[in-house]
Amino acid sequence: xxxxxxxxxxxxxxxxxxxxxxxxxxxxxxxxxxxxxxxxxxxxxxxxxxxxxxxxxxxxxxxxxxxxxxxxxxxxxxxxxxxxxxxxxxxxxxxxxxxxxxxxxxxxxxxxxxxxxxxxxxxxxxxxxxxxxxxxxxxxxxxxxxxxxxxxxxxxxxxxxxxxxxxxxxxxxxxxxxxxxxxxxxxxxxxxxxxxxxxxxxxxxxxxxxxxxxxxxxxxxxxxxxxxxxxxxxxxxxxxxxxxxxxxxxxxxxxxxxxxxxxxxxxxxxxxxxxxxxxxxxxxxxxxxxxxxxxxxxxxxxxxxxxxxxxxxxxxxxxxxxxxxxxxxxxxxxxxxxxxxxxxxxxxxxxxxxxxxxxxxxxxxxxx
Length: 368
Hints:
A two-stranded parallel ribbon has the order 1-2. It is globular and about 70 Å long. 60% of the residues lie in helices and 2% in strands. It has 19 helices and 2 strands. It comes from Homalodisca liturata. InterPro entries: RNaseH-like_sf. This is DUF4371 domain-containing protein.
C-alpha cells in the first residue's frame, strides 16, 4: 500500500556543542551509514534557531551544498511567537507583570495552598493558576485566561502578600491590557491547535491565510467611528461593564491594538511563504483540475491536460485525501504527481519532534 509516512528518522546525542557543523555532521554520518543520498532530502523545516538558519554557515546552508534543491522553511507553529515579538511596550509590560503575578502565587507550596483556600471561600469555579513556562505552544494563552478569570481572587490575595504587585495589578489600565492579551492569545492557541498534527502541509497554510484575513477584519472594526471591540470578548465585556469609561482610554486601547495587529500582520507577511495565485506548485497540488496550464512549466503542461481530461481522476479527486490521490496517480502521471509529492512530503512544522518532547516530559512527570 502506497502512503505517506511521517516518522522520526533518527535521534542522536550531540556530545559537545550544538553548532550547525555538529548537527550537519551527525546527519551526514547517519545518511552515509544507511546509504541514503542527499538527493533524497527535499525540504528542511526548523524552529528558526541561528544554528539552523544562518545565511552562511547555518545547517540549512550546509545541507544545500550537498543538494542545492533543498527547500528550507521555518516551523509554521513557532511563528506564533511573533505575537509576542510584535507587542507594543505597554502590552509587553503587562504580559511580563501577568507572568510575575502567577509566579508569585505559585512560588511556594504555602502560597498555592492559601490561594486555593481563598478561591474555595469565594466559591470560585477555578482554584489554581497555571504556571507560565517558556514553551512555545500554549503556555501564555492558558495562563492569561486563567489569570483573568481569577482576577478578583488574585487581587485579594496580593493585597496581603505583595504590596508592590498589588499596586501594579490594580492599576486602572492593567486589567484592560490583560483582557486583550487573554483574548488575543486564546485566538493564537486555537490557531496553534489547527497547525498541529500530521498531513497538514496545505491545511496549515489555509489556517494562516484565514488568520491574516481575520487580522484585517479586526483592524477595520477598530477604525469605525465608534471602535468595535467585539472580536475580543473579554475586553469587550469589560468595556461594557465599566461605567463612564473615559473616551481617552477607549482610544488608547484602539490605538494599542491597532498598532499590535499592524505589526503582527507585517511580520507574518515577511515570514510566510507566498501562497498567492502566482505560486503554481500550491495551485496544482490543491486542485489540478482548476489550474490554468499556461502558468505551469512546459515539461508538465501536456501531462496536466491529460489528467484534467481523465474522468475517473475527476471522480476520485474530491473523495480522497490529497496525499492518497497523488500517490494513486503517480504511476499514470509521474511528472505532475511528483511535483505535488515534493510539496506534500515536506514538513510544515516540527510538530513530530515537539510531540516527542512532550511525551518524554509526561513520562518524567507525576502523570506517568
